[in-house]
Specification:
This protein is an alpha+beta fold and about 100 residues long. It has one domain: Glutaredoxin (3-Layer(aba) Sandwich). Helices cover about 35% and strands about 20% of the residues. It contains 3 helices and 5 strands; from the N terminus they run ββαβαββα. The chain has a 5-stranded mixed beta sheet, covered by helices on one side. The protein is globular. It starts with a strand and ends in a 6-residue tail after the last helix.
Length: about 100
Amino acid sequence: MRMQTVPGKNKVHDVLIYTVSTCGWCKKTKRLLESLGVEYSYIDLDLVPADQKENLTGEMRRHNPRCSTPTMVIDKGKEVIVGYQEERIRNSLGGGAA
């Protein structure tokens, strides 16, 4: 799996984002997390080897049946945020309202 971790000062939550490397909303979500100092991991689904893609898509589908990106899984699925939802992301990860 090609998971990458972006370090941050805020390590309170386990954050994993399923993304596509060319997706503007995915990039915007990553920038928001970085501005909040949130440590997170991400997987660019379009860059994983073909033999791993089906497994990763299945994992993502459990959290988001539509398999749209970005899909953010917080604390192993206790909360899932689909799409770029700035206010919800800020509230969920301790950044307050926009």
